[in-house]
Design brief:
There is one protein chain. The chain is an all-alpha fold and about 190 residues long. The protein folds into two domains: about 80 residues, Rna Polymerase Sigma Factor, Chain: A; about 90 residues, Arc Repressor Mutant, subunit A (Orthogonal Bundle), CATH 1.10.10. Helices cover about 75% and strands about 0% of the residues. The N and C termini lie far apart (about 50 Å).
């Protein structure tokens, strides 16, 4: 059993991990649950509860952040499985509402089409696209989170981009503001990556 000084040192390390990685993990989670910051905060808290329980398994920096992304990925996937049906119904309602609006509706519809197209990707392709385009991870870092090689990430990303293009082209001609809509869905620095 660890002594008081060892427990204090472990507590200090965990506090440093929490302070250093909370914002990155929260951003990772919030982007994957469509901006619901309240739920994202709850899921991020779950990530750090797991980290606290398994703190002896956490690798040293900078791999600790990637380890946390791996935990967050599993927690988000569990959350998404539990709420998939509800999310589909909300998406359908948003599309119907967007169709009834004027020009603003067209921008919203384009944005929804991009989000819907991303949701139509296989989960493995969607996740790699989000890790690289939204979270700004390198192929090696994304591979670490996903448990695969950087080459596998590059191949998955290639397939994800190609499939996303096909899905979006199947929606028909672009609306008046697709560039704006895509930039609202994806970070501005990722536009050239897709």
């Amino acid at each position: 059993m660890p002594g008081p000084s060892e427990a204090q040192a472990g507590g200090d390390e965990f506090e440093a991990l929490y302070k250093g990685c909370y914002q990155a993990v929260f951003a990772y989670v919030v982007r994957r649950i469509e901006g619901d910051t309240e739920t994202a905060a709850d899921l991020t808290a779950e990530v750090f509860v797991v980290a606290l329980r398994k703190r002896s398994s956490i690798p040293p920096p900078p791999e600790d952040r990637l380890w946390l992304y791996g935990v967050a990925r599993r927690i988000v996937l569990d959350h998404q499985r539990r709420h998939r049906r509800q999310a589909r119904m909300k998406s359908q309602l948003r599309v119907q509402a967007a169709l009834s609006e004027s020009d603003t509706g067209q921008v919203e519809l384009s944005r929804l089409r991009v989000r819907q197209a991303i949701q139509e990707l296989k989960p493995v392709h969607r996740e790699v696209l989000q890790l690289v385009a939204w979270d700004g991870l390198s192929h090696a870092e994304a591979g670490h989170v996903l448990g695969c090689t950087a080459n596998a990430v590059a191949l998955r990303l290639h397939h994800a981009r190609a499939r996303l293009r096909r899905i979006l082209s199947a929606y028909g001609p672009p609306d008046p503001g697709p560039r704006l809509a895509q930039s609202q869905v994806l970070p501005s620095d990722s536009g050239s990556q897709i």
